[in-house]
Amino acid sequence: RIAYAITPLIEFWGDQTVDAITKQTCRAYTTWRKRAPGTVRRELTTLRAALNFAFEEGRLTRVPHVELPEKPEGKDRWLTHHEAARLLNAARTGYANVRLYLPLYIMLGLYTGARPGAILTLRWPQVDLDAGRIDFNPIGTRRTTKRRVKGQPIPRRLLTFLRLAKRRGTDLGYVVHDGGARIKDIGRGWAAAADKPRHRRTGGA
Questions:
Q1: 152 φ, ψ (degrees, to nearest 5)
Q2: Start-to-end CA span in the chain (Å)
Q3: Least enclosed by CB within 10 Å: which of 42, 64, 99, 169?
């Protein structure tokens, strides 16, 4: 996500020096970008973080103010049981290389509400199948403001999925994996599953 954010920032500011970053140019960037306020805000936040890092490293004597678009309201949209079932069905009947991990990823998201990064970095030592609890905070990791829930109960249906998945995994490996390898981006498989039900509905209309 950082790499995606950097690309348009470089395109807009180009070879200009840091003093070219002002309230006016930030507003101009927002207009030029023609994207949702949330997207522009994430990109400018990346720019601000880079400037702060450069200042801390002694590469800058001051940090210019980066004006951000107003933070959009949170989305209040939840999948219905029917939509969740359709999504899972599409994931199970999708491409062969995502069949094993995509349904489990979706189940973890639906039943725990955990963030994508927390799910993709989850390892089996964090899952206690006997006690029926799952901890999205890796041992030795300091808690952040995102507040990943520690030791939350595992719903019965998800527990069944996890037990089946454990048979395909290793004691120390990732819970959601691709042939044992960590999955860094779920985007392609997710998009394919999310798009499939829509095509079916359109085709049957």
A1: -80, 150
A2: 37
A3: 99
CA distance 106 to 88: 7
What is the C-alpha to C-alpha distance for residues 68 and 38, in angstroms, rounded to an integer?
Answer: 10
Q: Encode 116-153: b = buried (16+ Cβ within 10 Å), e = exposed.
A: bebbbbbbbebbeeeeeebbbbeeeeeeeeeebeeebe
Q: Are 102 and 94 in contact (CB under 8 A)?
A: yes
For the segment 57-109, what is each residue's pLDDT rounded down to a tens digit? 999 999 999 999 988 776 667 778 888 888 888 777 755 445 678 888 889 98
Which residue type, as a one-letter code, is found at position 20?
A: A
Is residue 196 within a helix (H) or strand (E), and if so which, with residue range? helix 187-203
On whether the CB atoms of residues 167 and 116 are closer than 8 A, the answer is no
Are 200 and 94 spatial neighbours (Cβ–Cβ below 8 Å)? no
Q: Which residue has tokens 């590469």? A: 59
Tell me the C-alpha distance between 196 and 200, whole Å: 6
The overall average pLDDT reported for the chain is: 82
The answer to whether residues 86 and 201 touch, using CB atoms and an 8 Å cutoff, is no
DSSP symbols for 95-163: -TTTTTTHHHHHHHHHHH---HHHHHT-BGGGEETTTTEE--S-TTPPP-TT-PPSSEEPPHHHHHHHH
